Every structure is written in C-alpha cells, then in structure tokens.
C-alpha cells in the first residue's frame, strides 16, 4: 500500500502507540493535533502533552488549537489535503467540516468493544462493572458520541489483577497495529464500516475524585474492583474516623478477605474493613505527601485500632 497523507489527533499516553505505528508503517504525517500545553507541577509551568513531546522529537508539525469550530482552523485542516485523519483520545469535538475533509474520513481508536462503553472513561467503567472482556474498536467517526460505524475490533480478557493502568497500556498497544490495518483495508476497498448494534449501548461517564471514595456500604467485590479501576487516577480513598481527624487515605491495592461487621469497621490489625457484604483488606495505602506503605507499616504509625469506624 502506498503511504497515506494523514493527520493524527491525540493528546495523552494512550495515543502514543497509534502515532508510532503510523510512522512505522511509512505513512506521511502532515500534522499532529493535540491539546494545548497545560499548567502543571508546583510552579504551574506550561507542560506539553505526551503526544506533543513525541511528535516534536520526531520532527512533525504540531498544532494545538483551543477549538476546531472556527472557519480559519477548518480551512487550515482542509488545506492539508488528507487521505485520512486518525483520532485517539484527542479531547476536542470534531465538527462536521473536519470529519468530512479527509478523503477516507476520520478514524477513531476507541478503548472498548462498541457499542459498550461509549464516552470518556471506557477502561475504568469496564473494570468497575466487572466486565470479563473489553478491547479496541476502530470506528469511522460521525457527529455522534462514539456512534460511528465499526471498521475493526479486537478483544482482550480482563483478568483479576488488571488495574486501570495495566488495561490502559494493553489497549493502547493493541490500537496501533489495528488502526494501521483499518487504513490499509479502507484504501484497498476491502473494508467498510458496519453500523453499531442498537442493543448493548452503555455510556462511560467521566471520572470524578468524589466517585473514587470507598463507600463501605457497598459489597466488598465492587470496592475491590473500584480500587483497581481507579488506579492510578483518580485513586480510591477513604477517610479515617473522627478519632484520627478525618484524614484522607489513598488506597493503592486491596484484596477480598474474610470477616463481617458494621460497614466501615476496622476488623483487625491487617487493615481489614467490613463492607456491606464481605470484607476488604487494604494491602497498600498512602497518606497525603507520604510514601506508599503496606498495611502493617501504616497501622504502626497511625492512631487507629480494631473496632474503629472509617468513613
């Protein structure tokens, strides 16, 4: 297949394997679009996104408009004379004029098996809800929220030790070769988008820090999944009781355990907490501004005893 004239549109780490795969396949990247640099760190200095840093290292033209709704931005995009655009976790809505400009349209690398988990946080939602598998879908984009036709998809099993981070990295690596295959199939006329099924549509709402608070009235099985799903961000957390001043503690790892009691009750010296049903043992936790600690080490330096209630 001859090299295609492409634009790449992505911002975070998830997008990097797709951009790398397109370059390795020999395609001509005429421009890379990403979110503008954002303030970060204690000094609030502007920090470019992972995609911007990688693209600049590779000598590619980088564009980071605040919006694509203006006529000037749309004209600049059309002037690229593209065969296709590849989108992976870009972060901006693509207007109709952008979607229609490339000859083969815009392809999206989406981290779920559509139509399940359309939206912002498909990786974490699949873990939280206990899905047995997920995957990557290459979608022909339209004006809806992840409603476009499916070009290719590839599945992976979700295993017990998968966290949001582990699953993110696995799906990102799957996306690169898959989108290269989809482009080849489109260009050869051997692949066309099929409509998404009407049944099975779910929406993966954006994650919030408050949602990551452990609600001890929930079953232990769900809370264990929450800890894994929200690692590394936004990070599961709880507050110690009034005896400890209500300090917020982050939970990095947890496992199901034997035990019963009032929800939120500390059952032993191993940081086993009673839940709505069952119990959850917190195996690695972290206080604000401190290093991560195993449960036993944490309890040696924190005034909380068996029988206390956590919130």
Number of helices, where a helix is a run of at least 4 consecutive DSSP H or I residues? 8
**What is the straight-line distance between the termini?**
59 Å
Which term fits the overall shape? elongated
Task: Tell me the helix content.
Answer: 10-25%
Can you count the beta strands? 16
Structural classification: alpha/beta
Mean pLDDT: 94
State Rg: 23 Å
SSE string, helix = H, strand = E? EHEEEHEHEHEEHEEHEHEEEEEH
The quaternary structure here is: single chain
How big a fraction of the residues is strand? Answer: 25-35%
Major sheet strand order: 5-2-1-6-7-9-10
Low-confidence spans: none
Largest sheet: 7 strands, mixed
Fold topology:
Elements: E1 5-10, H1 16-24, E2 28-33, E3 38-40, E4 45-47, H2 50-57, E5 62-63, H3 71-78, E6 84-88, H4 96-100, E7 106-110, E8 118-119, H5 122-128, E9 133-140, E10 149-157, H6 164-187, E11 203-204, H7 220-229, E12 236-239, E13 248-257, E14 272-274, E15 279-287, E16 292-294, H8 295-300
Helix pairs in contact: 1-6, 5-7
Overview of this structure, please?
- The protein is of the alpha/beta class.
- Helices cover 25% and strands 26% of the residues.
- It is built from 8 helices and 16 strands.
- The protein has helices spanning 16-24, 50-57, 71-78, 96-100, 122-128, 164-187, 220-229, 295-300, and strands spanning 5-10, 28-33, 38-40, 45-47, 62-63, 84-88, 106-110, 118-119, 133-140, 149-157, 203-204, 236-239, 248-257, 272-274, 279-287, 292-294.
- The strands form 4 sheets. The protein has a 7-stranded mixed β-sheet.
- Helix 1 runs parallel beside helix 6 and helix 5 (122-128) runs antiparallel to helix 7.
- The protein is elongated.
- It starts with a strand and ends in an 11-residue tail after the last helix.
- 40% of the residues are buried.
